[in-house]
Structure to design on (42 residues):
């Protein structure tokens, strides 16, 4: 696999990894938003 393929996400494993990371970041953002809301209410 060339560097270009990795950078462009042509590899299915890279695409799948990107999807997993994206979902994890969304979940982390939601958790932090919830935590911030709880802290504001204290």
């Amino acid at each position: 696999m060339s560097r270009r393929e990795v950078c462009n996400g042509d590899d299915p494993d890279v695409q799948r990894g990107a999807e997993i990371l994206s979902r994890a970041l969304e979940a982390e953002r939601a958790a932090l938003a919830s935590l911030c809301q709880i802290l504001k209410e204290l």
